[in-house]
Amino acid sequence: MADHIKIRPATGTWVVRAGGAVLGESQNALELTEGDYPAVIYFPRSDIAMAFLEPSETKSSCPFKGEASYFSIVAKSGPIADAVWSYTDPNADVAEIKDHLAFYTNKVAVEQI
């Protein structure tokens, strides 16, 4: 793993909310820190209501983590575009985040409860 990336279990219970709905709650989330960036909470897909997520055509690439795929959230108030990302086939050094989802905290609420 790149020295500037650390992955550890996120302590406690984490919840993600968007558009007035709880999309998921997990006691099995991961916390990824990368250099000086704020920590990102990655939720297991099995703890997220995937029915609220619609795959997007958006992709991005990170030299350390691999290619990310994006999802938009289907909310009553309308779609929240590209609010979620996932590394479906991450680089081996960050394999723990496979089958996990991360959320842009400027688009949804990610909180420890």
What does this structure look like?
This protein has 113 residues and is mainly β. The chain has a single domain (5-112), classed as Domain of unknown function (DUF427) (Metal Binding Protein, Guanine Nucleotide Exchange Factor, Chain A, Beta Complex). Helices cover 0% and strands 56% of the residues. It contains no helices and ten strands. It has strands spanning 5-9, 14-18, 21-26, 30-34, 40-44, 53-62, 66-75, 78-86, 100-103, 109-112. A seven-stranded antiparallel β-sheet has the order 1-4-5-9-8-7-6, with no helix packed on it. It is globular. It starts with a strand and ends with a strand. The relative contact order is 0.26. The mean pLDDT is 94. Residues 15-105 form the DUF427 domain. Pfam families: NTP_transf_9.
Reconstruct the topology from this structure.
Elements: E1 5-9, E2 14-18, E3 21-26, E4 30-34, E5 40-44, E6 53-62, E7 66-75, E8 78-86, E9 100-103, E10 109-112
Antiparallel strand pairs: 1-4, 2-3, 2-10, 4-5, 5-9, 6-7, 7-8, 8-9
